[in-house]
Write a structure and sequence with these properties.
Layout (H helix, E strand, L loop, with lengths): L1 E4 H16 L4 E4 L7 E5 L43
Parallel strand pairs: 1-2
Antiparallel strand pairs: 2-3
Length: 84
Amino acid sequence: MVRTTIDDATQQLPELAKAALRGEEVLITTDSDGNERLLKLVAVPDPPDGNTPRGKPQFGSAKGMIWMSEDFDEPLEEFEEYMR
């Protein structure tokens, strides 16, 4: 585990990033005692499909989750006076 203060981390960011990429836990604290944790650096894993973190869209995956009322296109009563 690598532990450093926020002031020291600004000088050591490249080294801290390399440590996080190696899988080490990197904690950045507000004080030298390390009592108050501020940040934790972690590596972002590669997406399983090698593209974007969200992956490829699955068309039709929301089927049945969205509906529209039968009178969706009907004029609203609130706008009746403007429709004359």
